[in-house]
Every structure is written in structure tokens, then in C-alpha cells.
Design a protein that fits this description.
Layout (H helix, E strand, L loop, with lengths): L9 H27 L6 H23 L2 H31 L3 H13 L14 H8 L1 E5 L3 H4 L6 E10 L5 E10 L5 E3 L9 E7 L1 H14 L12 H9 L12
Parallel strand pairs: 1-4
Antiparallel strand pairs: 1-5, 2-3, 2-5, 3-4
Helix pairs in contact: 1-2, 4-5
Length: 252
């Protein structure tokens, strides 16, 4: 049997349906047998015996059609799928609980810049990169299956902030960079082994990022973040805003 060609969710459910189809007949057969022998058996015991026999019959039917070892493999795949669903649900609950934290954190940083006279530049469009994030940032849910998206050509580069579980009881909000799927936006964190709770950042167009990196290479500069005041691109963004060609089209 070709395991890859079978959906690990559908196949076990089909055989579960077979068990449920057989159960009424096995129950009636056992009930009739106990009545014939004038035996008094509790209904719960009859049900358990029916489930056991129904499952045994389903396995026998499957064994006639294929290899029972394949069925065990499929059950294992189904168990792993349920485990992944449980972990995804937990991550999504954490995401919903903490996704409102990042923006107030960024606004506080912006207000601190504005309240510090020596950092305030009146003729600049932005006081800090956090202000740019508030204008163009996108909230993203962490994608844990990186292998699934590794070969995709539509991934985009993102810079912004993310929330990490520093310990079981405390959270850490820090600046970060990651890759993301373009639509829908899901964060692919290739730097950290354990993904963050939620991500908020600016997805850049591939054309602009490619050109920017080429320009930096020609200038002999080291690789660093786009949102860096020590780079020509960073200063340009603070003074004049993000170039039109830098913004991902579906993020406008």
C-alpha cells in the first residue's frame, strides 16, 4: 500500500465507520444468543462485547483486503495528526490571548521617542521604526511545519516584533526578523527552534529586498536588518517613509 497516497485522517475514519456499521448486527447477535441461552447479561457488558467483536470483524475484513500492518501505520499517522491538531489549538489560543499586546508596546516606544527632545526630528516622517510598524505591520500566526513551506517560492521577508514565552509565567517582546507565507500571512521562524506566540511585522516585496541586498553587497556592507538607523535604507525610511516598491502589494 502506498502510505503517501492515503490521507491518514480519512482511512481510519472509514474503518471506524465500518465498525459502527457492524456494531448493531453484533449487538443483536449477542443479545439473541444470550436470550436463547437464558443468560442475564448487563447492557453495558453487551455493548463492550459488541464493540470488541465489531472491531475484530472490521480488522478481519481489512486483513482480507490489505495488510493489517498498513492499518496500524495509518492509525499511528492518525494519532500524530490528532496530536498536531491539539498543539495547533493550544498555539491559537495563546495567539488570541496575547495578540493585543504588541501594538500598545510599540505605541509606548513611539511616545518615549517623542517625549525625548534630542531624539525628536521634526522634519522626518517617522521618529522610530516602531512607528513604521504601526503603519504597515501585519499580525501573523506562527507556522510550525517549516518543511511544508521550505520549497515555496512565494515566501517573503518580514521585520518587526514577536512575543516569546521566556518562561512558563513570563513573556518577552522583542524585535525580530523572519520569513512568511504571502497569503495568508503565517510566520516561518527559521532562527528560533521554538516559534513565538504571535508575530507583527512588515512584509517586504521580494524585488525590493533583492535589490537592497545587492546594493549593500556592492558597497561592501555586512548583512543587517532593514530597520537599522545605521544603514542608508534605514535612514531613508525614517526620513521619507517606506518606498512604494518596498511594500508588498497585498499588504497595502
Amino acid at each position: 500500500m502506498n502510505h503517501k497516497a492515503l490521507n491518514p485522517v480519512i482511512i481510519p475514519l472509514l474503518y471506524l465507520s465500518l465498525v459502527l456499521l457492524i456494531l448493531p448486527f453484533t449487538y443483536q447477535a449477542i443479545y439473541g444468543l444470550t436470550s436463547l441461552l437464558t443468560l442475564t447479561v448487563p447492557q453495558g457488558v453487551l455493548t463492550l462485547i459488541s464493540i470488541f467483536l465489531g472491531g475484530l470483524i472490521a480488522l478481519c475484513v481489512y486483513d482480507l483486503l490489505g495488510d493489517s500492518q498498513d492499518f496500524l501505520v495509518l492509525l499511528k499517522l492518525f494519532k500524530n495528526w490528532l496530536k498536531d491538531c491539539k498543539q495547533t489549538a493550544k498555539r491559537y489560543i495563546l495567539f488570541l490571548r496575547h495578540r493585543h499586546i504588541i501594538k500598545p508596546h510599540l505605541k509606548k516606544i513611539v511616545n518615549d521617542y517623542k517625549s525625548t527632545p534630542n531624539l525628536l526630528k521634526e522634519d522626518w516622517k517617522y521618529h522610530c521604526f516602531e512607528e513604521v510598524l504601526l503603519d504597515y505591520g501585519v499580525l501573523m500566526f506562527p507556522e510550525t511545519n517549516l518543511v511544508k513551506h521550505a520549497a515555496k517560492k512565494d515566501l517573503v521577508y518580514v521585520e518587526g516584533y514577536t512575543i516569546f514565552n521566556e518562561t512558563n509565567t513570563s513573556l518577552k517582546i522583542c524585535s525580530h526578523a523572519w520569513m512568511a507565507t504571502s497569503n495568508p500571512s503565517k510566520a516561518l521562524d527559521v532562527i528560533n527552534r521554538e516559534p513565538g506566540i504571535c508575530y507583527f511585522g512588515v512584509p517586504f516585496s521580494r524585488q525590493w529586498i533583492t535589490k537592497t541586498l545587492q546594493d549593500r553587497k556592492q558597497r561592501g556592507e555586512k548583512e543587517c536588518l532593514i530597520f537599522d538607523v545605521g544603514t542608508p535604507e534605514g535612514l531613508h525610511i525614517l526620513k521619507y517613509g517606506l518606498p512604494e516598491e518596498a511594500i508588498l502589494m497585498n499588504n497595502k
